[in-house]
Amino acid sequence: MRALLAVLCLLASAPALAQAPAVPRPPERELVVGTRVAPPFSMKDAEGNWEGLSIDLWRHVAERLGLRYRLEERDTVQALLDAVATGQVDAAAAALTVTAARRQAMDFTQPFFATGLGVAVGRGGATAWLPVLRTFLSFGFLQGVLTLLGIALLVGTLIWLFERRHHEAYGGPPLRGFIAGAWWSAVAMTQAGAAQDGPRSLPGRVLAVVWMVASVVTIAVFIAGITSALTTQRMQGVVRNVGDLRAIRVGAVAGSSTVEFLGAQRVAFEAFSLPAEGLRAVKAGRIDAFVYDRPLLAWTIQQDFPELEVLPITLDSQNYAIALPLENTTRVALDVALLETLRGEWWARTRLRYLGRDGAN
Predict the structure, then answer these.
(1) 358 alpha carbon, distance to own chain's centre
(2) Does residue 292 contact residue 273 with C-beta atoms inside 8 Å?
(3) Distance of CA 201 to the CA centre of its chain
């Protein structure tokens, strides 16, 4: 009898155990959503209306949840973050990176975009020659030159040994004969002109033929290697990693996640209020590089700074999300709507429209 009662009690409680916790309903009041100009994620059109990847995403999610809201602009990243942390706004949709320090003061939804920090530099100028100088001063280049020099000296020594008894140019004191052999070897290797005082003995002439053919291949390989290294260095630019930033003048946006990254990496920098100010400083030569969120840099340079370029490297890693005040009851509903949206065709089309094919992948 007791066993039967236990089974009946278990069956009665099963629906309650299987029922998932209800998602809190979003507030019915009008929400205040903060934003700032950060193209292509948040920007204004010619009529002053807000648009952009983050803005369109918020509108799409808010429509799905039936949220009423109005957008309020803040001038800087720090002002927008302060508005979220103090509860002046109910959410912030722009290009906000999730960091540990920010997470202590506010909440974030599921990330909707993964990116990293980019480095903007001038297309020309003095800094453009630094990668070239770096190549010529590198150990690899020095090793290649010394290898060629060593082979030329070895061939020159053999020519002297073969010809010292058969050719007056290589006779006399050993030093004189060695220099003559080394000079002939270098001239034959570089094809700088007709090599004078060629070998007369059979071993010397055989070695000369082999060396002339081999030197053509050797020089071609050497030149190809240097060209490839110079091309790679030029593509990478003056900055290849974080360590290179410590040797040049760097700029960053005050209050951005870039500042936290540069500080942790012990990189000195000059702070600017807006990305455009830092890019103008690069253009004017007051700083050598400007570090900021890569998609924002690429967009701004494409629109307004054709004299600059974003190097093909990515520093750090970043996740953009919608910022919320702590203990916000809307987050769960927003997360569910975001996860459903990010897997759909609408999001793929929207990314393609704002970022193109490179940014949409």
Answers:
(1) 14
(2) no
(3) 60
Upper half-sphere CA count for residue 79 (Cβ side, 13 Å): 11
Supply 62's token pair: 């808010």
Element (H, E) at 310: strand 308-310
Pair 89, 82: CB distance under 8 Å: no
CA distances from 140 to 145, 190, 194, 216, 226 (A): 9, 20, 31, 21, 10
Question: Angle at CA 178, nearest 5°, toward 174 and 183?
Answer: 150
The torsion region of residue 31 among left (phi > 0), alpha (psi -120 to 50) and beta comes to beta
Instruction: Express each pLDDT in 178-193 by its tens digit.
Output: 888 788 787 777 765 5
pLDDT digits (tens, 9 = 90+) for 25-57: 666 789 999 999 999 999 999 999 999 999 999
Q: How many CB atoms lie within 10 A of CB 257?
A: 22
Q: Residue 121 in 3-state DSSP? A: strand
Which DSSP helix (H) or strand (E) runs through 43? strand 43-44
> If you search the block for the tokens 């459903």, which residue do you land on?
340
Domains in the chain: ranges and CATH: 27-112+321-360 (3.40.190.10), 122-127+239-316 (3.40.190.10), 133-235 (1.10.287.70)
C-beta of residue 122 within 8 angstroms of C-beta of residue 251: no
Distance between CA atoms of 36 and 132, rounded to whole angstroms?
Answer: 40
Per-residue burial over 77-107, b = 16 or more CB atoms within 10 Å of its CB, e = otherwise:
beebbbbbbeebbbbbbbbbbbeeebeeebb
Q: pTM of the prediction? A: 0.62
Cα 338 from Cα 344, distance rounded (Å): 10
CA atoms within 13 Å, Cβ hemisphere of 332: 9
| Residues 23, 29, 33: CA angle, nearest 5 degrees | 90
